[in-house]
Amino acid sequence: MKFCVISDLHYYDRSLGIIGEAFESMCQRESKVLQYSEEIFDKIIADVLETDITHVFFTGDFTANGETINHDKFAEKLEIFTSNGVEVFIIPGNHDLGKQYAFKYLGGEKTVEVQTIDKDNYLDRYRKYGYKQALSIDKNSLSYLCEFDDFYALFVDSASASKIDFPDKVVISGKILSETQDWMRQSINQYCIKDKPIVSLMHHGLLEHFPHQKELYSDFLVDDSDNLAETFVDFGIRLVLTGHHHANSIAREKINGVRITDVQCGSPLTSPLAYKVFEIHASQAKMETRYVSDIKGVANAELHNKAASILQRNIDYEIDKSMSSKGLDVLGDARFREFVVSAMNMYYSGKRLSNQEMNAVIKSFDTSSVSQELIYSLKLFSEQFSHSNNGLSLDISIK
Ligand SMILES: [Fe+2]
């Protein structure tokens, strides 16, 4: 089966406003070209309909900030897929439900809060995108299990449980309730009885995509990720498709002698404006990355340059805010900072330094004040996955 995964689409209707400092800073916070979300989505839809892709999966954050109007417009666009025979399955992200930075932007710093949707409303409007076809639905979350010709798909809701804990706060982190884990185990035991792999899809990451991610960006991994990764392996899951950080990265770990792979799918609104196409057949998974180009009304170079400059500002901001606050003051070293910036750029674009390039960088820092532990971490970051993160071919059978 050939399917497309679109993560972190952050659909945004321009009637909510696209000018002013408040709008700009919201875009920058998540490194996205929000003002082009409609044209980008239209282009992805057109491209998908031209291919032999039969299913489209959304791994959360399909609306900018859960605004009712953006859910309405997004749902209208989904009809284009279904009316052309392409089936759609969705699972929410932290931006799709409940309390959010959901505003109309009136220019300058002026904003006015707009309506968002809750869990019941979510189910009402999206029932036909996965829940209706499900073999089993979790009563404690928005998770569900489906069967396709070539694999079982476990759509795991990592977003709504944290929202319930903090109903009046904007929540970025994710978790999977123990009741939901029990449901996962029971459902897999009851329904996944044929000799087919189980692929899981959820918004938050399961495996660390770079050393110290848990300390530096804990909200981007699901809570208790180490134990959960072991639980997923135990359930027979060998491939997890995630999103949330807007970066293109593949992490692999061997847990109790078994390999598990987390493919983190980038956002089509964040440079390099990517989405993924997978083909799973006979327990073999192949993945390729596609890039958005030639959207209506904007020159290609202008679109990609704009996205790259927003990402660059975001990386600089994150390094200042997050890394230096965690005591990594070596980032004051200009050369080292430059290296971390380029490593972050590679993380987003799905590239890796070769061993030769990495060794050259490490050698150049040998006599500097940079800690060897950090150098070692960055070396691991580079070597974690030996080939480009933009393509993949692996065996996902349960052995
Ligand atoms: Fe997210």
Break the fold down into its secondary structure elements and pairings.
Elements: E1 2-6, H1 21-29, H2 37-49, E2 55-59, H3 68-83, E3 87-91, E4 103-105, E5 111-113, H4 119-131, E6 136-137, E7 144-147, E8 152-156, H5 160-165, H6 178-191, E9 198-202, H7 213-216, H8 225-235, E10 237-242, E11 249-255, E12 258-264, E13 274-281, E14 284-291, H9 300-325, H10 334-349, H11 355-365, H12 372-383, E15 391-395
Parallel strand pairs: 1-2, 2-3, 8-9, 9-10, 10-12
Antiparallel strand pairs: 1-13, 4-5, 6-7, 7-8, 11-12, 13-14, 14-15
Helix pairs in contact: 11-12
Fe (ii) ion is lined by residues 61, 93-95, 203, 244.
What does this structure look like?
The chain is built from 12 helices and 15 strands. Helix 11 (355-365) runs antiparallel to helix 12. The protein has a 7-stranded mixed beta sheet. Strands 3-2-1-13-14-15 form a 6-stranded mixed beta sheet. Strands 4-5 form a two-stranded antiparallel sheet. The longest helix is centred in the C-terminal third of the chain and has 26 residues, at 300-325. The model has no long low-confidence stretch (mean pLDDT 89). With 399 residues, it is α/β, with parallel strands linked by helices. Strand 2, helix 3 (68-83) and strand 3 form a beta-alpha-beta unit. The protein folds into 2 domains: 2-295 and 390-395, 4-Layer Sandwich (Purple Acid Phosphatase, chain A, domain 2), CATH 3.60.21.10; 300-384, no CATH class. The structure holds fe (ii) ion. Residues 61, 93-95, 203, 244 line the site of fe (ii) ion.
